[in-house]
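Incident log, structure service

09:12 report received: a user says their structure output differs between two submissions of the same chain.
09:20 pulled the input from the user's history:
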Amino acid sequence: MKIFITGIAGFLGSHLADRMLELGHEVAGNDTLIGGYLDNVPPNATFHQIDCCDIEAMTKAMAGTDIVVHAAATAHEGLSVFSPSFITKNIFEASVSTISAAIQNKVIRFVYCSSMARYGNQTVPYTEDQQPMPEDPYAVAKVAVEDILKMLGDTHGMEWNIAVPHNIVGPRQRYDDPFRNVISIMINRNLQGKPSIIYGDGLQTRCFSHVTDCIDCLEKMALDANLISETINIGPDEGTITVKDMAVMVAEECGVNLESIHMPDRPREVKHASCSAEKARKLLNYNTKTTLEESVRLTVEYVRNRGTKEFDYSYPLEIVTEKTPKTWSQRLM
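09:34 re-ran on a clean worker, output below:
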């Protein structure tokens, strides 16, 4: 089959491309390279450096495609409160354009990578039967795309599945982005002899998922003929960790003894966020194969081998007020 992966130079997209090639499928994909690295793209995949918002180019690039996995996203939940136009354009408009191009090409199935942000400030662990309660523009856009996909897919006869990953970590994740990827940010700073930066008291709780565990689930959501019209959380639920404790784990793996710097809370950040994996275990045979400690070790090894980087502040800050984190407005990372 021909698989088209958006965000193929990114973290999730490149790993999925590798898996699909290993399974013998023809793989193509697109990326703007604003959030990924060109050397992430597998050499045997066809690469299109085009924007998902360019519907004409996307329609042309998808010709002959059987399955689309839409992994591209400016996945910046916190930044969306201060750059809502930039973030929502690259979530909502980009996704709707991609869906339209897929339907025009009579794609059989469309797999959309949504976000745990869809659930907002609800009782944890989140389950798929909970109504979305987005807390920020990023999450609003993600939920809106889910609704559009269901509507257009059902209308035009395109199968769909919605994956809900949460806090993915591992090699190839961009680590010079000051606005997202908390573990990678900590690693990049620690390996430069700088302490981790924590927003608030650090008692926010999260579950982290190794990238290959997510790929196992996406593979089935894309290829299992019996799995249609499902929304499924993908990621571990065996236990949560506080951001404060995560900083300690990262520092130990980096071989540094640095006390974290605490900054004011970020507006609209959900305090406790974790998902139930019960549905994924039932439908996808999901199980956590890589521990958090191993995920951190592999990510540290990746950043150390690739080399630390200065943080890239090229994304726009559209709203700068007293509520904007100083780490961003004053470029303190």
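09:41 both user submissions now match this output. Likely a transient worker issue. Closing.
09:42 reviewer note: The chain has a mean pLDDT of 97. The chain is about 35% helix and 15% strand.
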